[in-house]
Design goal:
Blueprint (H helix, E strand, L loop, with lengths): L1 H10 L8 H13 L6 H8 L14 H43 L35 E3 L9 E3 H12 L3 E4 L6 H12 L9 H24 L14 H14 L4 E5 L5 H7 L5 H8 L18 E7 L2 E7 L9 H15 L8 E8 H6 L1 H9 L11 E6 L9 H4 L16 E5 L3 H18 L3 E6 L17 H9 L3 H11 L7 H14 L38 H10 L11 H15 L6 H14 L4 E5 L14 E2 L6 E2 L12 E5 L5 H11 L6 E5 L10 H8 L2 H5 L6 E5 L14 H7 L6 E3 L4 H13 L6 E5 L13 H6 L5 E2 L12 E5 L3 H11 L5 E6 L1 E3 L3 H8 L7 E9 L5 H15 L8 E5 L10 H17 L1
Parallel strand pairs: 4-6, 4-7, 7-8, 8-10, 9-10, 11-14, 11-15, 15-16, 16-18, 17-18, 20-21, 20-23, 23-24
Antiparallel strand pairs: 1-2, 3-9, 5-6, 12-13, 17-22, 19-21
Helix pairs in contact: 1-4, 4-5, 7-8, 7-9, 7-17, 7-18, 8-15, 11-22, 19-20, 21-26, 22-23, 28-31, 29-30
Function: E1 component of the 2-oxoglutarate dehydrogenase (OGDH) complex which catalyzes the decarboxylation of 2-oxoglutarate, the first step in the conversion of 2-oxoglutarate to succinyl-CoA and CO(2).
GO molecular function: oxoglutarate dehydrogenase (succinyl-transferring) activity; thiamine pyrophosphate binding
InterPro entries: 2-oxogl_dehyd_N, 2oxoglutarate_DH_E1, DH_E1, KGD_C_sf, ODO-1/KGD_C, THDP-binding, Transketolase-like_Pyr-bd
């Protein structure tokens, strides 16, 4: 028993354990003379049993040692309990700090109108963390909180957290996985409690920009009351925000800023930031025609470009033209930015900055927003991070309640999918707006990821100026009517701080009004004689009338050399067996041992363009291989999975050859490529649909940009769309690329619609697209079964010395005088018709292919049929149903040409094809086969 107690004493506190012998000696000394030991020991020993009579040597030490042990244990227990309580509270304080970081934004004062329904946030209460007011004066470690001190009273910590996360800025950053990014953002906000001190000059400049924003709206409201303009009233802080973004970006060395803009505030941005002359805007309000050709567009869709001076030098600004389809401009901007970055050899994105401005309801509601975020870090579409600004009116495009606009807490929640930081800021606090603007741009420049600023404001007027919003939002608009403007509130604050005199603000407004009425530019730092080298020179491509021809010939020796080079695969790259066979066949085609097939001719077209100095860019969901395995421009090493692209190694210093399989999107991707092509006139830009019908997922891009961009905005575009199209019995969805839709949109030579049927045709068609100085969108119905059809071949001579033929004449050996019937067709059906004619030995029928359906080649078609003077019947044969394909849109052209051959012949034009159908094709192979047989026979026997 004694030994056990000694062991316990040995392991316990300073009154036992290794000090036992010393303590026993002290105790013996105490028994002799209590005053001989220190007071603290005397207090211990006084509590022990005293010897009753007898000498001190008669006192048994074992019980005393036991008493020492018990006393030590009590003391240790008391100390440990105190330490444990303190440690627990320290942990709770750190948890409280984290709670503010996670949920402080939900308590933040970000709504200028105070309409936000505050919900209790228990995580931010002291009691939730087992803390109380009694702990407010207790000092705690601040942990990772950037307070500037390691330890502070709880009340100081809480006050700093409230200032940082619960005032005019609500930060959502804790969803970011990257620790470095998250810590960087925490430091930027916490170190200044989200309220840095700006100099008086900076704040007066902010007021001047607020004055400009409010001044333009009030001027237009008085001059054109009730006229639709989508004014910025209620969101005026957007103008100083944009001013700061551009100036700060220039300080970083940015050379170009491309902006996608919502309708609301667009006119204000044009005049006060980009420097559009107010007199030009007034002309538009007065309804004057401002472009010579085309339809033009409403003023709040217009784009603009200018140069401004910044601390880092001259910066080119480009505002994209924008249709009413809301968010669709966002990926267009990204494409334009990527083209500019490629031109500047800027893969990181330091020299060109994209800014996309959104409306709150559109940001939450439009699927293309998600698609644009999803592409932001992919190889084909990254632009080094985008600054997104949401002008958050807190009400939808009509006057709907947020409950009807989204299912998420914030309209910006979609941005969390790419871990973009989100800064909600009260639009009535210009200093806070300035702070988040600076942090947002610095973050983008530091990490090259997207960032979102949610400018929470309001809409003083209705959806447009003729709208009365109080009919559906009475409570909101009763508050708005009584709510002073952001400028008025800021003036009051500056006067209260002694930074502004009573008359200074009035003089500022009067000066702005005077400049506006005089037609002077009112944008700060506008460069009157811009440096033209900062932007794309479109001069060589302007003013060209339509021509269908171009010299696309290539010297035979050069052609063969390039063909050989594009088939070279270095040692160490192990090629998959079937791919190796494709490359071996191409080498035979290069040598003339095999006729050229589609994949060889198409790839060789790219090689020749690269050789002539034209960059080539191809994207789509399966473009590296080609959906039908015909291209194989990308070779995958079977050893390690690495990719090798022969066309990127044709020659030293060659132009870019970019080929990327896209993510599974059509809308954003096609919009991106449109934006790219409008900024890269010297490039061949190609988007290929995996199946032709997939383009309908991007129909809005075709409608709003590709088909009408030139006539609305005078924006040229040379984008090529390859849409696999053909009736192979694969069901309704993958048979038709909806040729009829494109032809219906064709007018004023706005685009080209072609259906090439030979390798030589696609070779020269792709080359023509870039070699001609004319820039028009190209829609190509590319084949599927013809990619390997035994008859769909061409010779090297046809590639070297030919050209794209808009009409291919009959390939048979017919006597023109014996021909009584002409069959006109386009696409794969030609080969079915030719086979039937050969099998049935029909010598009275000529078959002509119209390879370009728009612009319709009337002269070329007449030339192809002029020798058939005995023709009595003309038939148009198509695989598509009667109500689809080219029939309805093109028959008047064919009739006109037939009448030129013989008067009245056009009136006899007949149709051979599938019956009218709601679906594009039959879903059963047996039905498809019978329909195909019938339409071919009808072409000959109607």
């Amino acid at each position: 028993m004694q030994q056990g107690i000694m062991e316990l004493m040995w392991r316990s506190s300073h009154v036992s354990g290794g000090n036992a012998h010393y303590v026993e000696a002290l105790y013996e000394q105490y028994l002799d003379d209590p005053s001989a030991v220190p007071d603290e020991w005397r207090q211990y020993f006084d509590q022990l049993p005293r010897p009753e009579g007898g000498a001190r040597h008669d006192v048994p030490l074992e019980p005393i040692r036991e008493q020492f042990y018990q006393l030590g244990r009590q003391r240790r227990t008391t100390q440990a309990a105190a330490a444990s309580d303190e440690n627990k509270k320290q942990v709770k304080v750190l948890q409280l700090i984290n709670a503010y970081r996670f949920r402080g934004h939900q308590k933040a004062d970000i709504d200028p109108l105070g309409l936000r329904d505050p919900k209790p946030i228990p995580d931010l209460d002291l009691s939730f963390h087992q803390l109380s007011k009694a702990d407010l004066d207790t000092e705690f470690q601040t942990g990772s909180f950037f307070l500037g001190v390691d330890k502070a009273p709880l009340k100081v910590i809480v006050n700093a957290l409230e200032q940082t996360y619960c005032r005019s800025i609500g930060c959502e950053i804790m969803h970011i996985v990257d620790t470095e990014e998250k810590r960087w953002l925490q430091q930027r906000f916490e170190s200044v409690c989200s309220a840095p001190e700006f100099s008086p000059d900076v704040r007066k400049h902010v007021l001047e920009r607020l004055t400009a924003a409010e001044g333009l709206e009030s001027y237009l409201a008085s001059k054109y009351p009730g006229t639709k303009r989508f004014g910025l009233e209620g969101g005026e802080a957007f103008i100083p925000m944009m001013d700061e973004l551009i100036q700060r970006a220039g300080g970083y060395g940015t050379k170009e800023v491309v902006i996608g803009m919502a309708h609301r505030g667009r006119l204000n941005l044009l005049v006060n930031i980009l420097g559009k002359n107010p007199s030009d805007l007034i002309d538009e309000f007065d309804g004057k025609k401002v472009i010579e050709r085309g339809s033009g567009d409403v003023k709040y869709h217009q784009g603009f470009s200018s140069n401004v001076m910044t601390p880092g030098g001259e910066v080119h600004l480009a505002l994209s033209f924008n249709p009413s389809h809301l968010e669709i401009v966002a990926p267009v901007v990204e494409g334009s930015v990527r083209a500019r970055q490629d031109r500047r050899n800027d893969p990181v994105g330091n020299k060109v900055l994209p800014i996309n401005v959104h409306g709150d309801a559109a940001f939450a509601g439009q699927g293309v927003v998600m698609e644009t975020f999803q592409m932001s870090q992919t190889r084909a579409y990254k632009t080094g991070g985008t600054v997104h600004i949401v002008i958050n009116n807190q009400v939808g495009f009509t006057t709907s309640h947020p409950e009807d606009s989204r299912s998420t807490e914030y309209c910006t929640d979609i941005a969390k999918m790419v871990q973009a930081p989100i800064f909600h800021v009260n639009g009535d606090d210009p200093d806070a707006v300035l702070h988040v603007t600076q942090v947002a741009l610095d973050y983008r420049q530091q990490f090259h990821h997207d960032v979102v600023i949610d400018l929470v404001c309001y809409r003083r007027r209705g959806h447009n100026e003729a709208d009365e919003p109080s009919g559906t939002q009475p409570m909101m608009y009763s508050k708005i009517r009584e709510h002073p403007s952001s400028r008025a509130r800021y003036i009051e604050r500056l006067i209260g701080e002694g930074l502004l005199g009573d008359d200074d603000a009035k003089a500022m407004m009067e000066k702005y009004r005077d400049d506006l009425m005089a037609g002077n530019h009112v944008a700060n730092a506008l460069v009157q004689k811009p440096n033209k080298s900062l932007f794309v020179d479109w001069t060589p491509y302007l003013g060209h009338e339509w021509t269908g021809h171009a010299d696309t010939t290539v010297d035979m020796k050069l052609l063969q050399r390039l063909a050989g080079k594009m088939c070279e695969v270095p040692d160490g790259v192990e090629v998959q067996r079937q791919v190796a066979k494709i490359y071996e066949d191409r080498r035979k085609m290069q040598a003339g041992g095999l006729a050229a097939n589609w994949g060889f001719a198409e790839t060789l077209a790219y090689a020749t363009l690269l050789d002539e100095g034209h960059p080539v860019r191809i994207t789509g969901q399966d473009v590296g291989r080609g959906t039908f395995s015909h291209r194989h421009a990308v070779v995958h090493n079977q050893k390690d999975g690495s990719a090798y692209v022969p066309l990127q190694y044709m020659a030293d210093g060659q132009p870019r050859f970019t080929i990327h399989d896209s993510f599974l999107s059509e809308e954003a991707v096609l919009a991106f490529e449109y934006g790219y092509s409008t900024t890269a006139p010297n490039d061949l830009v190609v988007w290929e649909a995996q199946f032709g019908d997939f383009f309908n997922g991007a129909q809005v891009v075709v409608d709003q940009f590709i088909s009408s961009g030139e006539t609305k905005w005078e924006r040229l575009c040379g984008l090529a769309m390859l849409l696999p199209h053909g009736y192979e019995g694969q069901g309704p969805e993958h048979s038709s690329a909806r040729l009829e839709r494109f032809l219906q949109m064709c007018a004023e030579h706005n685009m080209q619609v072609c259906v090439p049927t030979t390798p030589a045709q696609i070779f020269h068609l792709l080359r023509r697209q870039v070699i001609r100085p004319l820039r028009k969108p190209l829609v190509v119905m590319t084949p599927k079964s013809l990619l390997r059809h035994k008859s769909a071949i061409s010779s090297l001579e046809e590639l070297a010395n030919g050209r794209f033929q808009m009409v291919l004449p009959d390939q048979g050996k017919l006597e023109a005088g014996k021909v009584e019937r002409i069959i006109l067709c386009a696409g794969k059906v030609y080969y079915d018709l030719a086979n039937w004619r050969e099998e049935n030995t029909r010598e009275d029928t000529a078959i002509l292919r119209i390879e370009q359906l728009y612009p319709f080649p009337k002269e070329e078609l007449l030339e192809a049929i002029k020798d058939y003077t005995n023709v009595t019947e003309v038939v148009w044969c198509q695989e598509e149903p009667l109500n689809q394909g080219a029939w309805y849109s093109s028959q008047h052209h064919m009739r006109a040409v037939a009448d030129m051959l013989r008067d009245g012949l056009g009136g006899k034009l007949k149709f051979a094809g599938r019956p009218a159908s709601a679906a594009p094709a039959a879903g059963y192979m047996s039905v498809h086969t019978e329909q195909q047989r019938q339409l071919v026979e009808d072409a000959f026997n109607l």
